[in-house]
Design a protein that fits this description.
single chain, 264 residues, alpha/beta, Rossmann fold, three-stranded mixed β-sheet, 9 helices, 10 strands, 21% strand
């Protein structure tokens, strides 16, 4: 009995230590680069102004919150991982211009099984297809999802009903981006969603949904560069062609979409 109790205690302790180490790693990566921070300020400054509302879907450790707040925007940060919710509350819990929603975003209201990667929480996911695509893929070696939790799910429309319409929506939810966009019927002037080269079909589905919602102009940034790759904004067909042309080693990035008439 004592051995069983000790093993259980040790497993919980080790899991907690790995979680803390993973969060600390993310904080170092996402807050420790001044050049990256300046690039983010320039990019997001083209989408939001002081007083605007922005949704940060998949807030992780909140580096986008920091950018948006520097620009004077109000932020609704959505993050289902308990350890990251605690981190966000420590960093931004006293800021009245930041609301933290401990939920996931999907095509409908309900509950979802969420897979935790405690060593690298930035790739925790609700998508089984994402984990299957990552298994054995170059650049994704060593990623493991060792725990699952049940998380509440709401839609982007429900989020807007709670907090108001957003000027900009950033979506980074590890393979569930198209699910998130399926729950949006009232588009914001601009949005972004993450893509990965292991799941190009998800990104293509996102572009199709954006086109249905009325978005006509697209651009992209590779990795964490936050530098747009196209000098001029392009069509849905052109951004899809660009996505298909990327080498597998490009790994990931973000696609940006604008409604007609928005600033370039």
């Amino acid at each position: 009995m004592h051995a069983v109790w000790y093993e259980s205690w040790y497993d919980r302790w080790y899991d907690s230590w790995r979680t803390i180490r993973g969060v600390a790693r993310s904080l170092r990566i996402y807050y420790g680069n001044g050049e990256r921070r300046a690039a983010m300020d320039r990019l997001y400054g083209s989408f939001v102004a002081a007083g605007d509302l922005a949704f940060d879907i998949g807030a992780h450790v909140g580096d986008r919150i920091a950018v948006l707040r520097r620009l004077g925007a109000r932020v609704v940060a959505v993050e289902p991982q308990p350890a990251l919710v605690k981190t966000l509350k420590l960093l931004y819990g006293r800021d009245r211009a930041v609301a933290i929603e401990p939920v996931a975003i999907g095509r409908g209201e309900g509950m979802a099984k969420f897979h935790l990667n405690v060593d690298n929480p930035t790739v925790s996911t609700a998508s089984d297809a994402f984990r299957e695509a990552a298994a054995g893929a170059p650049g994704w070696e060593g990623q493991t999802w060792t725990r699952t939790i049940d998380v509440p799910v709401i839609t982007l429309d429900m989020l807007a009903a709670r907090h108001g319409a957003a000027a900009f929506i950033k979506i980074d939810v590890e393979g569930s981006e198209s699910e998130a966009l399926a729950g949006l019927t009232r588009p914001s002037p601009a949005l972004s969603f993450e893509f990965t080269t292991i799941q190009r079909g998800v990104a293509e589905a996102c572009v199709e949904r954006c086109a249905e919602l009325g978005y006509t102009r697209y651009n992209a940034a590779l990795g964490e560069s936050h530098i747009l790759v196209h000098r001029d904004w392009v069509s849905a067909e052109e951004i899809t062609g660009w996505l298909r042309s990327l080498p597998q080693s490009a790994n990931s990035g973000d696609i940006y979409a604008r409604l007609p008439g928005g600033a370039a």
